[in-house]
Specification:
By secondary structure, the chain is an alpha+beta fold. It has 1 helix and 6 strands; from the N terminus they run αββββββ.
């Protein structure tokens, strides 16, 4: 089994179970925004998270950390439905834990 295959299976298992993902965004000249979110799904290059922040807008880069990996991602979309907010992220850099 190749290491990439193992990572993919681990990511799918993590996505199935959900889990926490921590997101940190820094605006130039501003303090960091730290968001604790629930992982909705995860693939090799993308993930979706449910959170309560209205400040994660498309184009914003965040550092992320969850059980499987840490890295940098870009917000691709954000959807607000009542009190629930979900965002989709494109992984720009990552490293397995």
């Amino acid at each position: 089994m190749l290491s990439g295959e193992h990572t993919g299976k681990t990511k799918k298992a993590a996505a199935k179970d959900g889990g926490l993902v921590f997101l940190t965004a820094t605006a130039s000249g501003a303090s960091s925004l730290v968001v604790s979110a629930s992982l909705v799904n995860l693939s090799e290059s993308r993930f979706c998270a449910s959170h309560s922040s209205k400040e994660l807008s498309p184009g914003r880069e965040v550092a992320f950390c969850h059980d499987i990996e840490i890295g940098v991602a870009k917000v691709v979309w954000t959807e607000v439905l009542g009190q629930e907010t979900k965002s989709g992220f494109l992984i720009l850099e990552d490293s397995a834990r």
